[in-house]
Amino acid sequence: MGLPHVHDVLEQLCGLAISVEQACASLGVGKTRLYELRSGYLKARAAGEVPLWRPGVSGGNHAAPWDEKVRAFLRAAVAGGYNYAFAASEAERLFGAFLARSQVRRWVIREGIAPAPKPPRLPAHLRRWQRQAVGELWQLDATPDYWFGRDEPSYPLLDMLDDVDAGVKVPDFAGESVPRLVHSSFWDRKLLPSMVTVSQ
Question: In the prediction, which pLDDT does 186 show?
Answer without folding.
Answer: 47
